[in-house]
Amino acid sequence: MKKADAFEFFRRLAESNPSPETELEYVNPYTLLVAVALSAQATDVSVNKATRTLFAKVRDPKAMLELGEAALRDQIKTIGLFNTKAKNVIAAAQILVDEYGGEVPRDRQALEKLPGVGRKTANVVLNTAFGQPTIAVDTHIFRVANRTGLARGKTPLAVELKLEKVVPEPFLHGAHHWLILHGRYICKARLPECWRCPVVDLCAYKAKVMKPPKSNAARTAG
Q1: Residue 219 host element (H or E)
Q2: Which of 2, 138, 211, 214 is catalytic?
Q3: What is the structure's pLDDT at 215?
Q4: How do the domains of the chain map onto residue ranges?
Q5: What is the pLDDT of residue 218?
Q6: What pLDDT digit, counting tens, does each position of 71-105 carry?
Q7: Which of 60, 85, 120, 162 is the catalytic position?
Q8: How far lies 38's CA from each of 2, 68, 203, in Å?
Q9: Could you say which of 1.10.340.30, 2.60.120.10, 2.60.40.1220, 3.30.540.10 is the CATH number of the domain covering 29-128?
Q10: Is 154 in the active site?
Q11: pLDDT for the residue 132
Q12: Is 120 in the active site?
């Protein structure tokens, strides 16, 4: 995608949603870190249901350690891989208390050393909690970047590095959220809703779906 088209691509997404935010619920950098770690192979909706009660009483690593792994497992048992995730969250909390005074580090390498925290989780925390222009490539962003021709790559890291080059500077901080939301609600995996896409004319996808299925049209009309 040409630079001018990339600028227009994000300008339109920004116009429709000037202040994009994560759909994960959190109260501070630590709870965001926990929420993102729990969201691996799970939906934001399922994570939010599990963490509302949890974050009402646990908002820092010390409180998480006091809660304990068994109680945490019980809190998040509706989320996939909850046993492993609970173990990692407790282990990470111990490191944060021992090495960082209970604070979440603002450094990707430090974050990635925490159990259960990979590059994507680190990037989300750096972007959302600390305002850094990082791009966390999840399945939605990977699909949108490749499908539209914005930043094609065979791996999430390849797509991330290309996006860092093609996303215009004014849109770098919000790009992560715009692309996720676009992939989640419009540029869907099974049936991209091209008929209502604000950037359809800039998209390189050849098999565009320009009319909604009859069932969708009937529901809309009703």
Answers
A1: helix 214-221
A2: 138
A3: 65
A4: 29-128
A5: 45
A6: 999 999 999 889 999 999 999 999 999 999 999 99
A7: 120
A8: 37, 16, 33
A9: 1.10.340.30
A10: no
A11: 93
A12: yes
